[in-house]
Design a protein that fits this description.
There is one protein chain. Helix content is 44%, strand content 19%. By secondary structure, it is α+β, with helices and mostly antiparallel strands. The longest helix has 31 residues, at 91-121. It is globular, with a radius of gyration of 22 Å.
């Protein structure tokens, strides 16, 4: 149980509550010290596996290092992974919000980040010549809707939260979902966005060469 709590708290930390202790008056012109930050971690009341004596899934440990770490697990071979989280007072409501409201927004945002990071790490000598192309591609991906993602696994926990002075506050359900898509399926969709961004770019020979180079090795870093 302690291990489950540790994973949940590190993976998806609740907003830190700022506690301001009473303090003497600060002299004029002197910057007051920053308020003391104190946070009481939530306690698990129950979770998805409680009734069956099951522990939390392995992917929750991997998720601490990000979606790419989850992708290395055998259960998610040849898939791109996105982890979605939602808190709510009602379990079914939190599950619905995660799958219907958060999933597509999170998917587009994280794929956009991957595209941006891949461009940043691309070994292209004339990268400055395709700066506008890269910006156009990132924007296009961030606004796109990607089809083919499906929920691979999920977990939930009912948590007791606490105020800054350690008193019981709210009870919330925390829902965590793993969404995945076949790599080839997503690759085709991203390639379409990259091609569209390239088509809209004013061409020069040097710029076309740089775009061709970055596209050739793009998915090696994606």
């Amino acid at each position: 149980m302690k291990k489950i709590l540790g994973v949940l708290v590190v993976l998806l930390t609740l907003a830190v509550v700022i506690g301001c202790a009473s303090k003497p008056a600060t002299p004029s012109g002197v910057t007051p010290p920053a308020p003391t930050v104190k946070a009481y971690p939530p306690q698990i009341i129950e979770h998805k596996g409680t009734a069956f004596g099951r522990d939390y899934p392995k992917w929750m440990d991997a998720a601490l290092d990000g979606p790419k770490a989850v992708e290395k697990l055998p259960d998610f071979a040849n898939k791109y992974i996105v982890v979605v989280q939602q808190d709510g007072a009602d379990l079914s409501g939190a599950q619905l919000a995660a799958s219907k409201l958060d999933a597509q927004t999170t998917i587009s945002a994280l794929i956009s980040t991957r595209v941006k990071d891949t461009f940043a790490g691309a070994q292209v000598g004339d990268k400055d010549k395709i700066e506008t192309y890269m910006e156009r591609a990132v924007k296009s991906v961030s606004e796109a809707t990607f089809s083919g993602f499906a929920m691979e696994s999920d977990w939930w926990a009912k948590l007791q939260t606490f105020t800054s002075d350690g008193k019981p506050d709210k009870q919330v359900y925390r829902v965590i979902q793993v969404w995945g898509i076949d790599k080839d399926t997503l690759k085709k969709q991203v390639e379409k966005q990259l091609a569209g961004a390239a088509a809209a770019e004013p061409k020069t020979e040097a710029k076309q060469k740089a775009m061709d180079l970055v596209q050739q090795s793009f998915f090696d870093g994606f």
